[in-house]
Every structure is written in C-alpha cells, then in structure tokens.
Write a structure and sequence with these properties.
The structure is a single chain. Helix 7 (245-254) packs parallel to helix 8 (299-309). The longest helix has 20 residues, at 35-54. The chain has helices at 35-54, 61-74, 85-96, 123-127, 148-155, 210-224, 245-254, 299-309, 412-422, and strands spanning 4-6, 17-21, 81-83, 98-101, 104-109, 112-118, 134-138, 141-142, 162-168, 176-181, 183-186, 190-195, 198-203, 232-236, 242-244, 260-265, 272-276, 288-292, 314-317, 325-331, 337-346, 362-363, 378-379, 400-401. It contains nine helices and 24 strands. The strands form five sheets. Strands 1, 5, 6, 7, 8, 9 and 10 form a seven-stranded antiparallel β-sheet that branches. The model is unreliable at 1-16 and 22-29 (pLDDT under 50). It is of the alpha+beta class and 441 residues long. It folds into three domains: 4-15 and 98-186, Roll (Pdz3 Domain); 32-94, no CATH class; 190-436, 2-enoyl-CoA Hydratase, Chain A, domain 1 (Alpha-Beta Complex), CATH 3.90.226.10. The two termini are 45 Å apart. This is Carboxyl-terminal processing protease. One of its GO terms (cellular component) is outer membrane-bounded periplasmic space.
Length: 441
Amino acid sequence: MMRKLSLLFAGALMGASAMSLVYGVPGTAANAAGAETYKQLAIFGDIFERVRAQYVTPPDDKALVENAINGMLTSLDPHSSFMNAEAAQDMRVQTKGEFGGLGIEVTMENDLVKVISPMDDTPAAKAGVLAGDFIAKIDGEEVRGLTLNDAVQKMRGPVSTPITLTILREGADKPLEIKIVRDIIKVQAVKFRAEDDVGYIKITSFTEKTYDDLEAAIASIKKDIPKDKLKGYVLDLRLNPGGLLDQAVSVSDAFLDRGEIVSTRGRDPKDVTRFDAKPGDSIDGKPVVVLINGGSASASEIVAGALQDLRRATVVGTQSFGKGSVQTIIPLGENGALRLTTALYYTPSGKSIQGKGIAPDIKVDQPLPPELQGRDLTRGESDLKGHIKGAEEEDAGSGSVAYVPPEAKDDIQFNYALDLLRGKKTDPAFPPNPDKAVLNQ
C-alpha cells in the first residue's frame, strides 16, 4: 500500500501521541543525583572524548550527542524523544494545523513524487497541479535520490516565496514547468458530509484547529439536514494517530453535557488531573456511532473511551491501538525540545487503555482487498519494543488491522454504522443508555 503523506505530516512526529504543551519543566525537582550517577556521567564523558579522538573517521559531535540523548530517552519508552531545533519546529507546525506550502497530498512512486490530490483553493490547485501528476524536479533539483520527507521539506517554505515544479503529466508532450508562490495552508483536520439523513464526521488528527473545525462541521450538517430528518452522526476516528490532549477533551465535550472525560495520573500518586464535560452538547442529543480500528490511537482513544464509558455513543469497529500515555513537550530554547512521557490517562470508568486499547461495543471487521491480503496491517502499542506495560494489558495485546477502504461502498464498518442509525440493524449496544454509565468514583 502506497504511503501517503500530506505536506503537513512529514514523518510520524505526531503519530500516536496525546501531547501536552508546556513552557518549562513540570512538577517538582527530581532527587539530587548521587555519587554513582556522577560516576556514570564521567564514564560517558570519557567515552565521548575517546570516540572524538580515536574513531577511524572524524565523527559529527552534534550527531553523537543527539544520538546519545535519544538512546537514553528511547530506553524509557517508544514515545519519549529529543527533538533538535528543526524537528521541534516541525512539531509546532503539525500541532498548529497550518504551514507555509503548496497544498498537495503526495506519495512516492517509481522514485518520483506523485500528487495524490491538490487541496481546494490552495496555490497548487490554482497553479494547475493535478491529481496523478509526477513531480520530477523541485527548483531544478532532481527528485530521484530524495526521500519523501526530503522532497516535502523542499516544497515547504516561507509564505510568499516562489517555487518551480517540473511536472510529468500523462498525455503531455514534454515536462511542464509550473511556478507556484507558497501560501498559508490550513490542514483540514475534520472532514464531513451529509449522508442523506446522517451526518458523517471524520477527524484525521487533533491539532489546534480540530475543535473549531468540528463545530463548523456540525453547523454545516445541521443546515444541510433538517432536525426532524437527522437520524444521528457517525464519528470516524479510524486511522487517527492522535495529537493534542486539550483538543481531545474539547471534541469529547462537544458530544457530552456531563461527566468526567478523562483523567491523567503522573509519577506522584497525588498528581491527578481530571477533565470534566460542561453542560450542553453541540448535536442536541442526537445518537452517535464512533468508528475505530488499529489506527485509532491516543487522543482518538480518549474521545472513543469517554463517549463509550459515559454511554453517549456506540463504538463500532475493531480494537484500537492502545496508547494510554501522555507526552509533555518541554522547550529547550534554541536547542529544540524534549518530548517526555509524564503521565498515563484513564477513561471515565477509571480504566487505563495502555497496551490494551478500546474494545468496540460492536465488533465489525473490515476485510482487506485482494491486493493487501497476506500483509500485516495490524497496529498496536503492545507490539512496540520497550512500551510501558499497561495495568490491564492482556496477553492478546492491543490493536487490530488499520485499514479503511477508499470507497464508501466497500466500507463495511461505515455502512454498519449507517444501518444502526437508520434502524436497519439492531443491537443491544445501540442506542446506549447514559443512565447506566459506570463511572470512576
């Protein structure tokens, strides 16, 4: 399966994360290091100097230090890491939900960058870039030999700066030179449509704009479907890798009018933070079906877990990824930032999903198409080397197949949700009864 990458999500920097952004180091100071610790640090310094002086070729000092730091952090868990200045800026771009660029979704095919689709009303679309175009050169530099991430980085840049793409297009006699001026690209974290008498909302990530985009989507659906005709909503969280914790809380609150959404618990037993829903929901109490699969991680699991535990929605699909930890981003000035796991989160019933995931109320498998059969598309936290073992983690682990068909007609999970909302299918889990919610006391 070709790997798709938008101009925003270069790399998996935000993948499978619930992140909390801070300005400074949270919590109390750690205990002072003992003599043995300083002895170990002296050993590190000695080895570092010997490598610099005696390695067969002169090493890159900066790379040595960064790799040593990341070695220390990855020994903790798969989600703690050091980000140099460039990576930290990438992270800020991702969480903000907008960047300076062209507005195209791309993949790599035959050593060239292939355009999956240009985003509506963006510089690329206005300049005439089409789906299916192959980008052979970027400002005269051959794309062959570059990684997809490298190519994406070259196409990003400051607003109002020009870039020239050399395009190979089927049917064209010769390569096309297309000059484009970069502009602010706002990534659509929420996609939606009126599905006759059902509102369909797909959240692809949790950026700073997700909640606002969700409210706009709900308002648009309400305009398109009369209230007396609207049967309910499908909230699609499949293949959603996560993002900002506060956005997950706000999105959950849009469907809730009471109850604890999530709690986070840190190293100190007293370090517990609870997030509660405010009165009133944005969809006027209409039924909700949430879709999840093995690609639903962290922030998306917070939403699914809250709506499930509070009996506000019926969860359909397969076991979610199972990432129940929260990463705090600690800025380090011009040196970058530290992403450190500082807490685990718990659903309203008091359960940790770390290494376990959210089990759907109604399990509906999505078969793989013939061309993908035999490939392992199962994703789960419990499969990650060095992951924090969850209190409720089971031998079976977390996760499931992370696949969604490109065409709605082939999407069994989506169509099952529609049938539930329209009364064509029945199940004891739908509609759920909020009065029977079992909450953490």
